[in-house]
Amino acid sequence: MAEIHLDPDVLSDLQEVMESEYPTLLDTFIEDSQERVAALRKAGGDAKTLGRIAHSFKGSSGNLGAVRLAQLCELLETEAVEAASDLGALVDQIDHEFALVKPLYECRSELAREKRQR
Amino acid sequence: MSALAPVLEALTILIAEDSAADRLLLSTIIRRQGHRVLTAGNGVEAVEIFAHERPQLVLMDALMPVMDGFEAARQIKQLAGEALVPIIFLTSLRESEALAQCLDAGGDDFLPKPYNPLILAAKINAMDRLRRLQATVLQQRDLIARHHEHLLHEQRAAKAVFDKVAHSGCINAAPNIRYLQSPYALFNGDLLLAAYTPSGDMHVLLGDFTGHGLPAAIGAMPLAEVFYGMTAKGYGLTQTLREMNAKLKRILPVDMFCCATLLCLSAQRRAVEVWNGGMPEGYVHEVATGRRTPLISRHLPLGVLSAEAFDDSTEVWPMALGDRVFLLSDGVLDTADANDQLFGAARLQQVFAANREPDRLFEDIEQALAAFRGQARDDVSMVEITLLSAPPLRVAEPMYADSGQSSPLDWSVSFEFRAQTLKNYNPLPYLLQLLLEVHGLREQGGALYSVMAELYSNALEHGVLGLDSALKRDAQGFAQYYRQRNERLAQLNSGYVRVHVQVAPTDQGGTMTLRVEDSGSGFDVDKELARPVDVDRLSGRGLSLVRQLSSAVSWSDGGRSVCVEFCWEALA
Amino acid sequence: MSVESEVSLDGKKLTIAIKGRFDFGSHQAFRDAYERFYKVPETYIVDLKETTYMDSSALGMLLLLRDHAGGEDAEVRVLNSNSDVRKILAISNFDKLFDIS
């Protein structure tokens, strides 16, 4: 699994599609994702709830180009069905990955706003 | 964005998606494609928004909190009813089972995440085409249903109007007519009319217009008017036929015409006169011998030939009281079985042969048709008329509107009808109309017409044409008699029939003297009057009828001149 | 049902052949068969060799053709009718208008 965190092509496509809404999209994603990470934490060992949140999280992070995050969510979704390994460890990894990409999104959002204001 | 498929028409699209980022992304993409966007964060919201806003298309996330996409899709499909509201599932589901679940719930297509704006636009356009196709189909279906309803309504109304016109004759009142018509036979072009002439003969028409539906029924109206109008005024079959043919030729398009059999049944003359143009063979059924004489189609249908080319020649067959005439439409013979075999004339003959009770003939035929095909057609018409002794003579009342104040009471008039006129003109209806101007004669209109008709045909046939009434002794001679009549009439180039009318007032009321003279060789009046009245003889009834109906009869000039008198009392 | 038409080489004779049922369903095809020719033929042949059935609207179509071909002066021949079809033509006495064989 290649260690790509953000896919720059996806992000530039998004910027093109969203135009002025681009920073809002990124902000919305950050906010939304924070809620999802919290929900994962709160779900504890409830495999079914973990799986459902992971599925949804996978969709939005895929759309936003967070490649590694989407991969981890998919892994959690699959593992949750089998309920075999330690799901807690995967949740930690997702939390960690999100913490890593969050500032990258924030930075891009900031840049895009500044660019528009100029 | 540039390379998007062109938007056909701006739609209102509902996006149901629980992820705010995805919702924002999709909304933006779709708005940029020119559509109006509604959004919902879960299934319950989606159903509510759908109910209020009726978007034309729905993008539905499968897994959502509160109510998932499957249930929401089901409810939306239910709300949408017959209209197609395409639902495209937004999903990263990979398992085929989950995809099948989307279809089960009413999903029409899928859009995988991450979204590709190009594919999304193409799918929306494709779904929109489907949606509009369905809308068009529904619209056309409803339109057809409305038209159909409308047509049925018109048919019912037209049938009601037509029944009044068509049945203004004696078809339902006459005790000697039985008929069977499928309820909407009229809309298959079948037409059945019957009416009495002033002298108590019965005219019957069974017609069949080309084509189906209203066009076929429309021609029936003028035909019925001519039939009733001319029959009531005393016109014979040939004049009535000419008028009907000319009228139909004038009003119908080239490819429409009316096959018809026209009958004149005369109890007084014990005969039926027939003209058949294009109808299947009917029959005269001689009850005593069981013989059935076919009434063969000799002519083109009505409305085909120009007035000059039209052939009005009729055939005359003798009938005894109780004998029957049977007519039918081609719906009977053309009833087809499952293998497209037609019922045909041969099978009809078998039914005739097997028929034991003449009164159950229709039922026998219906049974045979049902056994043959098992399903009734809507263009079956049959009619059977029995020759009964003449009904009381009368002239239809509604012809007169005045009170009699203007009645002419002191006048006379003379006519001479010469060869060329005698060939094809019947002066009787005109004379009757003239005489009925005299109010006091109206009561006796029927008797008057019968006497006039008898005297005129004696003068023409025995006088001018020199035909021997003794020929009419038997059926064979009867046919010969009418053949000779036609031949001699066609060759006629001299001779005359004169009619003198004198109307004079008396103390009590008035008197009308009618004198008919012919150019023939006369006859032995005393010998003729001395012959016993033989009710079953085909000839010789005429004179006794004349004596019975008029106040006084006298012959002169060696039988070449006859004079009758009608008297009336002043009206109160 | 099918309606085929063919003009002779000299353009003087138009033959219209009807296959199968000759009824209202053939109306447009039958009209097209004689109306589409720019040059007016002298003789019209209606070939019923492969006609299985004809109804009264088919008789109406023959009248239309006759009218198109000049009415009283029209030369329209009806050929090869089978016995069922001939019966229908006979009842209507169409032999008084058309040369039927």
Automatic annotation (TrEMBL), chain A:
Transmembrane segments: none annotated. InterPro entries: HPT_dom_sf, Sig_transdc_His_kin_Hpt_dom. Keywords: Phosphoprotein, Two-component regulatory system. CDD domains: HPT. The modification Phosphohistidine is found at H55. Residues 14-108 form the HPt domain. One of its GO terms (molecular function) is protein kinase activity. One of its GO terms (biological process) is phosphorelay signal transduction system. This is Hpt domain protein. It comes from Pseudomonas fluorescens.
Automatic annotation (TrEMBL), chain C:
One of its GO terms (molecular function) is anti-sigma factor antagonist activity. It comes from Pseudomonas fluorescens. This is STAS domain protein. Residues 3-101 form the STAS domain. PROSITE patterns: STAS (PS50801). InterPro entries: STAS_dom (IPR002645), STAS_dom_sf (IPR036513). Coiled coil: none annotated.
